[in-house]
Structure formats: C-alpha cells, structure tokens
Fold:
Amino acid sequence: MIGERIRETREKNGFTQSALAKKFRISRSAVNAWEMGVSVPSAQYLVELSRLFKVSTDYLLGLDRCETVDISSLEEDEKDILYALLNLFEKNRRAVKILNSSEYARLEEDYDLLKSQGTELPEHLSQMLENLFG
Structure:
C-alpha cells in the first residue's frame, strides 16, 4: 500500500522517480524499490515525503484515505470559495453518480413512457424531470 501511495502522490505532484531521488539525495532505484514494495522508506523519508507532498504520514502508510491540500497561503475570501465548492461537490455527489450511470438512461426511459401514457405528475416533479431530460 505504501508503495502505491508514494507512486500516486509522486505522479500527482509532477515528480519523476529521478527527480524525487535527487530531492532526497538518494538513488532512483531506492525510490523504485519503495514503489515496488521491495523496501520501505525510513521514518525520516516518510516525514519528508509527507511534507513534500502535503499529505499525512498516515495517508502514505495507507491508514487514512483523506488527502489534504495546504490552503494556508490563500486569503479568507478565496478559502470561502473553496469551501463552497467542496460543499457543492459533496451535495451533488449522488446526482453526479446517477447521471454517469445506467440508472440515468433507465430514468429517462421511464419518464418518456410516463409522458407517452399521459400520466399526470406533480408540478414540481414534472418540472424537474423536464429540466433534466428536456
């Protein structure tokens, strides 16, 4: 797990194995060994990796699924925008999953069938479905 997390965070942060090795003054093969699970970084390197990638050591060790982003350099109004976006994503996660799934197509088919049968739906539901499917 730690090897996968190191590779994922390294790639997300735009580092090659060679660049990471150079940053820590170790060999590229040492970084490769971490990522392949042949060896694990020492506590010192684990802390350095977490600082560099701005993730917790627990995240790198696979004990925590949370990722963190350092926003300490942002102004308060910029932070407010980010928090609002995160809340929006959280609220709409289920809707997005439905829209990206086969359930969406089935729902659209069911709506078309109801319309073709002349079924009366409550106004708010009818309006919502009309907005969704046109």
Q: What stands out?
A: Residues 76-99 form the longest helix (24 residues). The chain is about 70% helix and 0% strand. The CA atoms of residues 76 and 111 lie 44 Å apart.
